Amino acid sequence: MADLGRGLTFLAFAVALYGIGASLYGARAGRRAWADSGRRSVYALAGLTTGAFVILELAFLRSDFSFAVVQSHSSTTTPTFYRAAAAWSSQEGSLLLWLWLLSLWSSLVLFLTRRRMRDVQPYATAVLLGFAAFFGGLLVFSVSPFDVLPVTPAEGVGLNPLLRHPSMMSHPPLLYSGYTLWAVPFAFAVGALVVRRVDAEWITATRRFGLAAWFFLGCGIMLGARWSYAELGWGGYWAWDPVENASLLPWLTGTAFLHSIMVQEKRGMLKTWNASLVLATGTLAILGTFLVRSGILDSIHAFGASTLGVPFVVLIGSMVVGSVLLVVSRRDVLRSEHRLDSLLSREAVFLANNLVLVGMAFVVFWGTFFPLIAEAVTGQKQALGPPWFDKYTVPLALLLVLLSGIGPVIAWRRATAAHARRNFAIPVGAGLLALVASLALGAGDRPLALLMFAFGGFVAGTVGQEFWRGTRARRAMTGEAPPTALLSLVRRNRRRYGGYVVHLGMAVLFVGVAASSAFQSSKDVRLKPGQSVKVGDYRSTRSRPRASTCAPATSSGSSTARGWWPSRTARSSPAWRPSAATTRSRARRSHGRSGATSRARRPARSRWTRARCATCGSRSRRTRRS
User: Fold this and answer.
1) C-alpha separations of 599 from 176, 435, 445, 466, 528 in Å
2) In the prediction, which pLDDT does 517 show?
3) CA–CA separation, 338 vs 266, rounded Å?
4) In terms of CB atoms within 10 Å, which of 149, 466, 467, 591 comes out highest?
């Protein structure tokens, strides 16, 4: 099985190389048959990687410890659910998962666009296969998941306890789906720039893939936060960890891209900006994959130091240089067809929204890589903690929520005063109501949280007003009942009203983050037994443990040598085992109390003793010693 998996991986790498050559030759020579052959090589790549991934999964499910990766990341005692997820807990398995998902999404987009953009598609195919060849090469020459051990062990090491969480089954595949899906618009943007076809058709063809990438990446981030809430940091869900930040970066720039392409479709503006955003998002997706595997930044999520840093740096550097050259060389055809008419317009709000999102991405990027920057300049690593991130991201988040409430109701090109009064009266009233309610509930001493609650109410008022107006207009036209009119309205305008729902959901998310962050009270205090500390309205006192779960000491003069026996609670602990001296002492006492020998002996004096555990210093309950 291992040889078959290794052979499939090598064939996938060879097919990717062939597809790159066939696609580029077909595009440059005008040979459509070669371009089609390059596209079909993507389908073949999907079949080969599917077979390789199935073999790896079967090895984990069968606990085949002849595979080195199975032996180091699974065991026979690991539940089946986690054995299936353990395939991507390793570096080798996660790279194969990345390649497999990339081949699936690439096959889907190339099949759907097989009769469209025939000049752009071969170059996009070559870019997608270039990514596949890179990851296939890593699996063939660097970290193969099909390496076997010379001697098959009877048992494996097992899965890391922190990875035994239900999110292990969904969190990594969702993140990798987001990363690989962002490669699709990246590849088509490269193809469109190469052939100088910068109209909105490539955006239309890849919009759904961009939305899917944004959705899957967002779900992966949320599940990761839920995982952290359950496993780490006493309920914390976001610690600005480098790997967490790496997944947030393409999400932020991708969100900006999805907003700005609406302006290009509507007005023919922001072409250079959109090309730059999608190229940056694709590069940041590869950067996120790189940070998990390089070990250059300390993170509890990373695989640790490895030899993959250099290949990833070469790939990312090539993407950055190539993207800059493409945009600069095509600046003449990327010129906008129209200009911004007014700052009070939807175009201006979308542009401001983009600037805020990119500003947040820059803050996160700078804070994440600051240890490397500081080490290069001063020779010492200096990490930036959550207070630094919060200082800059909180004001930007406030602006983002406010703009998400303004954008849906402001007019295109130019908004008049009468139009603004008519559209913003209800949202402003809802924001003021939320402000008053927050003050009444005692949020006045947290001004930033108070602003976030007010802006969240503003967004809720905007979304509610749009749904109410649309339903009322639908009822006036068709005479339908309100629920039917609402469903028909959403069904006929899914893109518009789906965006409203997303805006409302993001406002709720930010309000929740503000509430959980601003009103928490934490204090790090070291207490000795008997000492207490006041936290808010509560006083916490450290008391001595009632029963020791430590193994009793066996040194000379210890309580064990004197026949100490712990309580029933302590004996039930899996960590406790009686020492030989304790067992002998207990046996002698039992023998002395049995049969005629016990009646013939002189009654021993009874006394109460209290033993101290030599490990933790706690005392056991009083025991009777004869």
Assistant:
1) 76, 84, 77, 94, 49
2) 82
3) 10
4) 466
Q: Closest Cα to residue 592, out of 603, 579, 581, 580?
A: 603
Q: What is the DSSP string of 208-234?
A: HHHHHHHHHHHHHHHHHHHHHHHHSGG
- CA angle 594-595-597, nearest 5°? 90
Residue 287 CB contacts under 8 Å (≥ 6 apart), including other chains: 246, 249, 316
Total Cβ atoms within 10 A of residue 498:
12
Angle CA 236–241–243, to nearest 5 = 125
Q: Which two tokens stand for residue 521?
A: 């009270």
pLDDT tens for 546-580 read 654 444 443 333 333 333 344 444 444 444 444 44
Q: What is the rounded distance in angstroms from the CA atom of residue 282 to the CA atom of residue 290?
A: 13
Length of the chain: 626
**For 272-325, what is each residue's pLDDT tens digit?**
999 999 999 999 999 988 887 666 665 555 555 556 778 888 999 999 999 999
Q: Contact at 8 Å (CB) between 42 and 103?
A: yes
pTM (2 d.p.): 0.81
pLDDT tens profile 135-152: 999 999 988 899 999 888
CA 495 to chain centre: 26
Q: How far apart are the first and last CA of the chain?
A: 66
Q: Which value, to the nearest 10 degrees, does the dihedral of the CA atoms of residues 350, 351, 356, 357 take?
A: 70
Cross-strand partners of 623? 609
How far apart (Å, rounded) are the C-alpha atoms in residues 280 and 316? 11
Distance CA 409, CA 423 (A): 6
* 553, two tokens: 């000491």
Number of C-alpha atoms within 13 angstroms, CB side, residue 290? 18
Tokens of 454: 């007010």
Residue 386 per-residue DSSP state = H
Tell me the one-letter amino acid at 452. Answer: M
